[in-house]
Amino acid sequence: MIKGKNFIMNTMAAVVMGMAIAACSDDLFTEQDALEHANKVLGVDIPADQDWNLASSVTAEILINKDYGETYTIKVYSNDPLTEEYGTVLTEGTVENGQIFVRQFECASTDKRLFLGVTNSRGYTFYRTAPVVDGKLSLTIGSSSTVPSRGILKSPTTPDVPHITIPDDAYAKSFLEGAKEPTDANTIDNHDDGGGSAVWWSWAGDANTLQYNPGGFTGSDEDRTFFETYCRPYTLFVWGQASNYFGYTGTEATQYLYQILSEAGKWSSWVNGVTPASDETYVKKFKITDYYDKGINVLSTEAGQGDARSVYISGKWMVASPDNSGEQRVGGGAVIVVDDGGELIIPEGMTMTFVNQARLVVMPGGKITGGGKIVVTNGNAEGLEGYNGGTIDIGTFNNNAGTFHNYGTFTCTNLMGGAGLSSFYNHAVVHITRSGKAESWGGNYDTPNIRIYNACHWYCDEDMRAYILEVAQGSYFKVGGELFMSSGNDGTADDSYVALGSASLTEIGTLRNNNTSWIGPKNGYAILEVGGITYLNWTGDEPIQKGYFINNIAMSVDDKTMGAGQAHGTDAYVAMRDFILNGYGKSNDYFSPIGQTACPDGNGSAVLVEKGCADIDIYGDDDYEAGKCGCTPGYESSVPQRKKVKPAIWSYAFEDSPRADYDMNDVVLKVSYFQKDDYTIDTTKLDVTLCCTGASLNIYVHLGDKGKIFGGQEVHAALSGTSGMFVNTGNGDKFERRDPITVQVATPKDFNFSTADFWVEASGRKIHISNPGQDPHAVIIPADWRWPKEWTSIKDAYPDFVNFANDPQNPAYTEWYKNPVEDLLY
Asked: Quick one: which of 291, 302, 420, 654 is 20 to 30 A from 811 by CA?
């Protein structure tokens, strides 16, 4: 390259002579000479397989299987249009539903993942990422088997959450029949002798008989006679277990003997000892119809359902501890029924604990209030599940290995779940402050294993933790703080998951996702709105084995800062986008589908949308019938504003002489498809921009055999510069600044950016794009590239260029053009 000769010599003749000599010597400069010169100047050893090609040819094959009769506009972007003002379009076109969109286009060879925008005729757009593998971008959008409808306009009539046999009025009133109001006399433990006369028995194994009064306690003669007559001759009694009583055996004998003794008013029950009881002091059924403010000790004493007591409440019961422990235990299959108009009050500092199949039933119109705590533990058999059809407003509800169904309004400050299988089924409205942390709420996570099945409204103001979450069709689930999906276990082999039903709406402040998979419906779409990310169980480098997002989920993610130290960076949207969209993990240097084994049918239909702009309308109505219909606040979608686009830009950088200094700025062209306006790209035309010339020679630009472009002008003249001056390559008296010039040319047939035949003519020499094994006298860069300043070698302005020149197959260096030294660029 000849630069500055006209500034060194003082006469035009000398300039002409110098140029002629240089031209002559350049003609004698062979291709091998140029290669050796490049190796010396750049300090490299250019291998024979260095083709200088930084582009890849890609074939898109995108099957659209969504809305019947719909036509979609497809745009393939090199960037994510949701994170930038413009989406950079590589190719675009239309396709009818059920057909395959096929396009061939070029992108940077380092682009192993591209972005899709899919817009329907109504203007709604959703976005996807897709991997480029072996030159193909292959994807199915929508169901692989059935075509889902555009949207669900009304909530389904049968939410997909299991129901129980709902207690009716007859069930509630059955506990009122024969019940007695609690008194000081009938609420103490009847198994205690109370210091009065008692009958005590034990088994004498050698005689196979019962011994009467071995402990010296005495009862009346009548008691002794009854015992001798009805018990000893017919019963073998061992620690509360009677057998062979009038032909009955085992538990049946126990229950029959108990019935005989109770009806006779002799003994209330038996374990080791019994107290003579009367109808007044022994009560199986309690009722509270007015106001009661004491504990009931006997609620915790029975061991079996046949002996269980119950409390029917149509008045008010202010619970107190029977033994000053701060706890009212309810055990042995006991049942607490709060009927219409009744109220169970559990004050702060008080706990009501349900154990051994005990049941809590709140009928419509009944309520539980107070700042205290309810604990449901040890499981609930079928028919003994906890039930709320009224109103619960409590401090803490600990569903500890229990089963609870809400058909009314459930409110608590802290919802907890135990270490075992703990299930909460919501068919109406739940409003909690927080869930899943220790009661002290000091920040340590606790009780992670609750399973939540939501069929209607669920609101959590702060943080929440769960192990399994199902959001049924047409339901609403909102967490204002962080949702922590746990990777722990609840004693089962089940993996943690979230299942979202069609036309469901889930809103989350931030997500901490720990090996939890999110599964959408296969027909219709679920809407998921996420604010930010605090943790994802993925480093960004390995294929995702758990925690993928699959099936029909339309997601929006606010661009918020992630928690510190995340492998995915600090952009929550980017992290979520990379993680969820189609279950793709990064394997080696490309993104590979893991859905082949983990989720083979539906791994491609999760999409990103702008918040509030999913093409789904969900009917909302607060006038719902619990567990049946109208269980969302509704979702009115809005058409998003059209996303501005710009075409991908390709840069072509030339040296004008084989004696190059490799500042790569003698001619720089930038080429793209013609942009008609902010939203439209015309691929029938090319925008060709002449950016600069760092040469003193006269240079003309050509495209193939179409002749000179820029109106046939020499590059200095085309830029309105002075002949022989340097234009847009530096500062000072020897340099000129001029606006780049752009012309439109017809796109040649079978045009390809990566093989386009742009070439320059310099002093009669034709300089084409470098071929494999040549020096880099002219290269194509798949980017809107910034060129080095005058007399600044590309190896200095872009330090990775030398590594790329030496080792073209190393992916660590193929993005050399993205890592400049800023001060050395024009």
From this structure: 654
Q: In this model, does residue 609 exceed pLDDT 60?
A: yes
Count the neighbouring beta carbons within 10 Å of the beta carbon of residue 244: 12
Q: Which residues, 6 or more positions from 570, have their beta carbon under 8 angstroms from its beta carbon?
A: 561, 562, 564
Q: Let me know: does 519 contact 497? Beta carbons within 8 Å.
A: yes
Give the pairing of strands 136-142 and 429-435: unpaired
- Count other C-beta atoms under 10 Å from residue 341's C-beta: 15
Q: What residue ranges do the domains of the chain occupy?
A: 28-42+649-824, 57-150+636-645, 191-274, 291-524
At residue 325, does pLDDT exceed 70?
A: yes
Angle at 490 between CA 484 and CA 496, to 5 degrees: 45
DSSP codes of every residue in 648-676 = --EEEEE-SSSS------SEEEEEEEEEE
Please name the residues in contact with 398: beta carbons below 8 A apart, sequence gap of 6 or more.
Answer: 373, 374, 375, 376, 377, 416, 417, 418, 447
pLDDT level of residue 731 (50, 70, 90 thresholds): confident
Q: What letter does residue 345 receive in the DSSP assignment?
A: E
**CA pseudo-torsion sign 69, 73, 78, 82:** negative
Structure tokens belonging to residue 596: 């082949």
Rounded to 5 degrees, φ, ψ at 570 are -110, 5
SS3 124: coil
Pairwise CA distance, residues 745 & 243, whole Å: 104
**Alpha carbons 510 and 517: distance in angstroms, whole number:** 16
Range name among 295-304, 428-437, 563-572 with the lowest pLDDT average:
563-572
> Where are any strands of DSSP class E within 678-707?
680-692, 699-703
Angle formed at CA 757 by CA 751 and CA 759, multiple of 5 degrees? 150
Residue length of the chain: 826
Q: Does 204 have pLDDT greater than 60?
A: no
What pLDDT score was predicted for residue 6? 33
How far is it, in rounded angstroms, from Cα 665 to Cα 726?
10
Q: Which residues fall within 8 angstroms of residue 336, CB to CB, at 6 or more apart? A: 310, 311, 313, 330, 344, 352, 354, 358, 359, 360, 361
pTM (predicted TM-score): 0.79
In CATH terms, the superfamily for domain 57-150+636-645 is Carboxypeptidase-like, regulatory domain (2.60.40.1120)
- Exposure class string for 538-556: b at 16+ Cβ within 10 A, else e: beeeebbebbbbbbbbbbb
pLDDT above 70 as % of the chain: 73
* 719 has a pLDDT exceeding 90: yes
Average pLDDT, the chain: 79
Straight-line distance from the first to the last Cα atom of the chain, in angstroms, rounded to the nearest whole number? 19
What CA–CA distance (Å, rounded) separates 520 from 524? Answer: 9
**C-alpha torsion sign, points 770, 776, 782, 785:** negative
Q: What strands, in cross-sheet order, belong to the sheet with 386-388?
A: 285-288, 310-313, 335-338, 359-362, 386-388, 403-406, 422-426, 450-454, 468-471, 497-500, 517-519, 549-550
Condensed to tens digits (0 to 9), the pLDDT of residues 353-378 reads: 998 889 999 999 999 999 999 998 76
Per-residue pLDDT tens over the stretch 107-159: 999 888 899 999 999 999 999 888 788 898 888 887 654 333 333 322 233 33
User: Which residue bears the tokens 């309308």?
Assistant: 617
